[in-house]
Design brief:
Elements (H helix, E strand, L loop, with lengths): L7 E7 L7 H12 L3 E7 L5 H10 L3 E4 L4 H7 L2 E2 L1 H6 L4 E5 L2 E5 L2 H13 L6 E5 L3 H13 L4 E5 L3 H13 L4 E3 L10 E4 L15 H7 L3 E4 L8 H8 L3 E3 L2 H16 L5 H12 L2
């Protein structure tokens, strides 16, 4: 891929961001369609993120947003979709005339993957690990896919847990803080923390808690070659589980179409991700 003076630059922005396969996925699609564009991974701190996002869009580009900037992105954009307003989180930003437009393509992607994992089984209550933008997307996805579902949130910080519950109440999501050691069986567990990006990371949930919960399905939004430790731990216990590669592709397809205004080559994007994660 050659970058010319005319090349449109797009990026995934986060901190950390080196793990992201968004450039691999999007560049495969760009090459397949013969577009004059390039997709990069750019690291930004909380302080530098707003200027980077505005500058990239002002130059004719667009961006996907990953941890920890999804909530900051929602506060930055001028034209949010309804799902951005509801979640207070945004993962896709592009220009519309002189304004910043934004969407949260995570919600539909998580719902699709969770419904595939549960195989038609109803979700009465689910546990969401984490309180960031991805956790908000997961909670809304579950609440919309299974109306009436009760959601518990796990946080290492009591204050963030209560903040999440207060947000959920306003978003129309039935939610409470999960008490560590609860023995009630869960229908679904979603890891929406970044734990697992680094091989040395601890599990986002203790093995004993995972055994007590005995969920029918588990979705880890993190992905890694050979699968994450959480994915392997779940499958060792007979739990149907998937990592975040399916969500990555599903949200990426929608993002690509918002960025370029053409149908995305979904299977090419999926193959690029699978090849990169092949152990």
């Amino acid at each position: 891929m050659r970058i010319r003076a005319t090349t449109r630059l797009l990026a995934v922005v986060g901190d950390p961001v080196g793990h992201s396969l968004s450039p691999t996925m999007h560049n495969a699609a760009i090459v397949a369609l013969g577009l004059d564009a390039a997709f990069l991974a750019l690291r930004a701190t909380r302080d530098t993120f707003p200027a980077l996002a505005r500058g990239l869009v002002a130059a004719g580009g667009a961006l996907n947003v990953t941890v920890p900037h999804k909530r900051a992105a929602a506060a930055l954009i001028d034209l949010p979709t309804d799902v951005v307003r509801r979640t207070g989180a945004c993962n896709t930003v592009w220009g519309r005339e002189a304004a910043l437009a934004g969407d949260n393509t995570d919600v539909a992607a998580i719902a699709c993957e969770a419904e595939s994992l549960t195989r038609g089984r109803p979700v009465r209550w689910a546990l969401v690990l984490g309180t960031g933008g991805s956790a908000r997307a997961a909670a809304v996805a579950i609440a919309d896919a299974w109306p009436g579902a009760q959601i518990a949130v796990s946080s290492r910080d009591a204050g963030r847990g209560e903040e999440f519950v207060n947000w959920a109440r306003e978003a129309g999501v039935a939610c409470r803080v999960w008490g560590v050691g609860e023995s009630a069986t869960a229908d679904l567990v979603v890891n929406a923390t970044p734990l697992g990006l680094v091989a040395a990371d601890p599990l986002p949930i203790e093995p004993g808690d995972l055994e007590r919960l005995a969920p029918a399905a588990l979705l880890d939004l993190v992905y890694a070659p050979g699968g994450t430790r959480l994915l392997r731990a779940a499958r060792e216990r007979g739990i149907r589980a998937a990592d975040g590669r399916g969500v990555l592709v599903a949200q990426g397809v929608v993002s690509f179409e918002l960025f370029f205004g053409v149908p995305a080559p979904a299977e090419i994007m999926r193959a690029a991700v699978e090849d990169a994660l092949r152990a």
